[in-house]
């Protein structure tokens, strides 16, 4: 296991300024005082682990990441309970998914214990940056190719880093139903591609479709499959679930979509509450038929950033579809409350998902 050097920021944000910033938290615009950094090279492997003052990187213009996009990342959160205890939610799963992404992009895997140490040491040092209440500390571990060269091959140098950002709700207005635009022109991923990896290119490919969604007054975009343009896959940044009138749930299967940790947690919590989840292909045509018959009564999206967001309306090129009553349904509410209750330590962590941070 790597030994981390701790170099405290000599000019941290004053406590009064931080408290003021916490009064109106957005998402991903405010950052803590420190960051974790580890370097990798073909000669040395992983080395030079440290937690240091957050600062810009100096990159050569020929750095591989700028030309061939060898870059991956994760998203996770630290939560503060009412008693002040700080916890991470299933960080081991983030470590495993990070390495799965690394394998897909021909990048070196980071040992799980070093991934977790980089997270925990940063959160411990910046514990004052973990807000209470509805807020949380969003953590962004990422890795990029830093070798300066213009040949098309895997880089021989990489930088792993973790930065932290105190955040409020992802969608403004709190827990209210969101509107989704169904993209029939753009695809996010294809079989054999990088859809199951958490890499920046997937998100870059979604931005034009997201802009289209915004133009139609929607919060997010829903992608269909690349081959037939009929099967529902996922949103630009979240997985999706559909609740039927018999209480069961349908969610698209893995393969071309991201294996969401929140998705997996929701499926486990559904089973805990005797809710059957079917992982199967679900077409947009079937969805419309189920809405017409009244069989489809709720829909929701989930992910680390937004947690669980009820879907009230789907817009597409030929019109608009209201999901159920257009409000957040009881199954969505139940699963959201169960998940947040565990994350905030208001409910028992029967699955051992929480990892406590020693401050």
Automatic annotation (TrEMBL):
Identification of the protein by name: Branched-chain-amino-acid aminotransferase
InterPro entries: Aminotrans_IV (IPR001544), Aminotrans_IV_CS (IPR018300), Aminotransferase-like (IPR036038), B_amino_transII (IPR005786), BCAT-like_C (IPR043132), BCAT-like_N (IPR043131), BCAT_family (IPR033939)
UniProt source species: Neorhizobium huautlense
Required co-factors: pyridoxal 5'-phosphate
GO molecular function: branched-chain-amino-acid transaminase activity
Matching NCBIfam families: ilvE_II, PRK13357.1
EC supergroup of this enzyme: transferase
The organism's place on the tree of life at top rank: Bacteria
Keyword terms of this UniProt record: Amino-acid biosynthesis, Aminotransferase, Branched-chain amino acid biosynthesis, Pyridoxal phosphate, Transferase
Pathway assigned to this chain's UniProt record: Amino-acid biosynthesis; L-isoleucine biosynthesis; L-isoleucine from 2-oxobutanoate: step 4/4; Amino-acid biosynthesis; L-valine biosynthesis; L-valine from pyruvate: step 4/4; Amino-acid biosynthesis; L-leucine biosynthesis; L-leucine from 3-methyl-2-oxobutanoate: step 4/4
Similarity annotation: Belongs to the class-IV pyridoxal-phosphate-dependent aminotransferase family.
């Amino acid at each position: 296991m790597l030994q981390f050097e701790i170099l405290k920021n000599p000019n941290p944000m004053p406590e009064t300024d931080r408290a003021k910033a916490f009064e109106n938290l957005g998402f991903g615009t405010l950052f803590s005082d420190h960051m974790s950094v580890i370097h990798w090279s073909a000669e040395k492997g992983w080395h030079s682990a440290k937690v240091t003052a957050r600062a810009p990187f100096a990159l050569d213009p020929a750095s591989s990441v700028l030309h061939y996009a060898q870059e991956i990342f994760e998203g996770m959160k630290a939560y503060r309970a009412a008693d002040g205890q700080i916890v991470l939610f299933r960080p081991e799963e983030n470590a495993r998914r990070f390495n799965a992404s690394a394998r897909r992009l021909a990048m070196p895997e980071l040992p799980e214990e070093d991934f977790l140490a980089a997270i925990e040491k940063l959160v411990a040092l910046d514990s004052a940056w973990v807000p209470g209440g509805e807020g949380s500390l969003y953590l962004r571990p990422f890795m990029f190719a830093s070798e300066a060269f213009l040949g098309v091959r895997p880089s021989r140098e990489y930088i792993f880093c973790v930065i932290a950002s105190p955040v409020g709700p992802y969608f403004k207005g709190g827990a209210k139903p969101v509107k989704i635009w169904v993209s029939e022109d753009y695809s996010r991923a294809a079989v054999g591609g990088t859809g199951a990896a958490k890499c920046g290119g997937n998100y870059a490919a979604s931005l034009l479709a997201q802009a289209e969604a915004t133009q139609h007054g929607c919060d997010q975009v829903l992608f269909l499959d690349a081959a037939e343009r009929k099967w529902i896959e996922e949103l630009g940044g979240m997985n999706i679930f559909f609740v039927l009138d018999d209480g069961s749930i349908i969610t698209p299967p893995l393969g071309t979509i991201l294996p969401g940790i929140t998705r997996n947690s929701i499926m486990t919590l559904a089973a805990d509450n005797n809710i059957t989840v079917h992982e199967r292909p679900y077409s947009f045509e079937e969805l419309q038929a189920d809405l017409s018959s009244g069989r489809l009564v709720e829909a929701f999206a989930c992910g680390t950033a937004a947690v669980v967001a009820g879907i009230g309306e789907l817009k597409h090129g030929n019109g608009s579809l209201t999901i159920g009553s257009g409000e957040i349904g009881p199954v969505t509410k139940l699963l959201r409350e169960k998940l947040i209750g565990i994350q905030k330590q208001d409910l028992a962590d029967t699955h051992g998902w929480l990892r406590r941070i020693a401050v």
